[in-house]
Specification:
Chain lengths: 223, 223, 223, 223
Amino acid sequence: MDGRDVMNHDVKSQVSDEALVARRRAQIVAAATELFSHQGFYRTTIQDVAKKAGVSAGLIYQYVTDKEDVLLLVLLSVLDSYKTEIPAAIAGLTDPLERFWAAIGAYCRVVDQRREATVLAYRSTKSLPDDRRELIKQSEIETNGMIAACLSDCVKAGLMRDVKVELVTYQLVTFAHSWALKHWRLKEVCGLEEYIAEGFDFFAQALLTPKGRRHQAKIHGRT
Amino acid sequence: MDGRDVMNHDVKSQVSDEALVARRRAQIVAAATELFSHQGFYRTTIQDVAKKAGVSAGLIYQYVTDKEDVLLLVLLSVLDSYKTEIPAAIAGLTDPLERFWAAIGAYCRVVDQRREATVLAYRSTKSLPDDRRELIKQSEIETNGMIAACLSDCVKAGLMRDVKVELVTYQLVTFAHSWALKHWRLKEVCGLEEYIAEGFDFFAQALLTPKGRRHQAKIHGRT
Amino acid sequence: MDGRDVMNHDVKSQVSDEALVARRRAQIVAAATELFSHQGFYRTTIQDVAKKAGVSAGLIYQYVTDKEDVLLLVLLSVLDSYKTEIPAAIAGLTDPLERFWAAIGAYCRVVDQRREATVLAYRSTKSLPDDRRELIKQSEIETNGMIAACLSDCVKAGLMRDVKVELVTYQLVTFAHSWALKHWRLKEVCGLEEYIAEGFDFFAQALLTPKGRRHQAKIHGRT
Amino acid sequence: MDGRDVMNHDVKSQVSDEALVARRRAQIVAAATELFSHQGFYRTTIQDVAKKAGVSAGLIYQYVTDKEDVLLLVLLSVLDSYKTEIPAAIAGLTDPLERFWAAIGAYCRVVDQRREATVLAYRSTKSLPDDRRELIKQSEIETNGMIAACLSDCVKAGLMRDVKVELVTYQLVTFAHSWALKHWRLKEVCGLEEYIAEGFDFFAQALLTPKGRRHQAKIHGRT
DNA sequence: GATGAATGAGGCTTCATTCAT
DNA sequence: GATGAATGAAGCCTCATTCAT
């Protein structure tokens, strides 16, 4: 699924030309993401979004049914970044440990790139009605699944301890998200790459088996 | 600082009788906490809060200047739980490792007790104007400080590796918060105590030095 | 059922004081009736109604859920005039023929008093959602029932031909309504009392039996 | 005046080809009539009309200046049915009484054929600005004139009482319209032809002179 | 001639806040 | 101190109308 697709996802439009729909929605989402991130969903008016997007307020309603739909599109676009970037980062890698670190690193970097949108996703999911919120949860579960699979592969290969995969996955995911959520403080403490490196060190300690440690030593230069 | 105190914290009231102010504010905060948690801050009206608190809408404005003040009081009351419960949990303990686990465990349990309010704090802090948000950040930093001190003591005692204290503190704090934030999923995976136990195991692996491990083995039954 | 009652009929209010509710609704209905009659329902804004009623727009929504509810109240108040005036006009009369003419005359006179509102009722009933429209139809059927009963009594007494009561009732009702509906033209032709007299003559010709005619001759001076 | 003509009546078009104009307008009017009848004028959007007519929204504005113009065309098309059908029904008849009944019967049958549009005309005339509403009134007066002439001829021929022609004309017209206006109830009571028959009986009683009655008896089979 | 995307004014409705009682 | 009716500003959304293609 590419970025285009999200823009046609689940939200009905009055306009039929698909390319136009995708373009307009991208325009709207870009403006909305910035505004929602800075002022919050409820403080941002549709007029604000329209003005920032350089279109009229009425136009927005040709591509969206609701103000809430705008939020949904924004959130889906963030989650979609994850689902696009993580697979891209591990594509071509075969070693389980390398794949694991690559996935975590990619996750952190997407979070960094879309930092404000990530925070927005944390704060605003509950502003959606239940059915649309469900879409978001599903997407989150999918992303977690990618991390969990990498973790699980390491366990199966005897490189990591036999931990509760799902719980540790949450630790990993949360670690990545924290970079955005606590950025106001963390940025005083270290930079992104250092944050990632510290995390690697921490999780290596927590998870690797002796065999994993030896393997890690060998591939170390590459990560 | 006790619960009463928060209710007199920083927000001006038109009523002079301090005991009454504290009582009324507690009433308002209790109602608001539940409503904000379930419906969100913006979807909850002052009339809703008044009705649930069993008072008139006008009354609220005698104890608060703003709707935002209500939110501030709610958030401060959550953060205050942390600042009350964690010291209580480690009072009387002297062993650094025991104090550490007790602090983390206490944190997780307060989060569990005030689960929805914790989520609210995550979501709604940005709904506050900058100056009032600053109050919240300060409170969060204080709480973190308590955890960081425990961690630091363990490091100084040679029981834990010389990690970046602040970063790891964030991981610990986030671990506790995650129980609330991801409760919708985690509750399917395990109960609170199991969650805590798994976390202890994880952090023990990640943090303990060989000396720490031996010490841990000795005190194990007690945690 | 008196006028007060209609004002508490079927529409929920946020305000509990019943007397106040009745007073405010009467205020709103009076303003709305005039505006809806002159400009039509859709051309009239709630702000217009509020201004004419001398209240704020927000206030209206404490006594009504919808703009459509305002229309409903207006229509019910018109229909209620019928249901109040016609029984009053025939109360105390026992002769079937006298009752019949008194009912028709009363109907015409109420229509005349509430001429514009009557036209409004004709035009606007379809602007209501189905369930509320049903209320209106019921009320209309009740009024028709009163006329039909008078007619039926005359038939039973052998004073009128054995016509299809319901069809003739519609003609009688429509005759009364026409005074409002076609007033723009009829007022050039005759006055109200002349209109009524001509109608009596017409319906007498159409309906009375020979016995009825003799009876009519006797009571003539009284009608 | 035929149906085509109405479509060129009084409303300016940007398109010059008259045949095309008439065709397009007929298309638009057909769609609008149905929608206005079912949903009302204000609830129907130009987009709705365009979709039902199978054209674009922009197209409509090449054949009409206003949304109100669409309504005007619709109403004129209804009134035009009357002005076409009634003369057709009495053409070739010479006996005044036969002409009278034929006119009334024709009126009722057109009302039945265009039942919803007739109701629409009742409800929506006031949605037009004064000048355009005047056009409608004129058209109504013309139709009434045809009925009044038939009635007047009967009176002159001594077949009917010397009633106020205009008032009775309204009774007759209203009788026909009622079939549409009260159809929701009348259809439970009788069919169209029975309704007409009852009306004939009623008006015969009300209007015929003894001479008229004898004449009526002779022609009875023919009506 | 036809299209349909774009505009933007305007209306309904909500709700934080006030104030007379 | 408490009430709750009243206010009115503000926002979401609709839809008649235009205009570039």
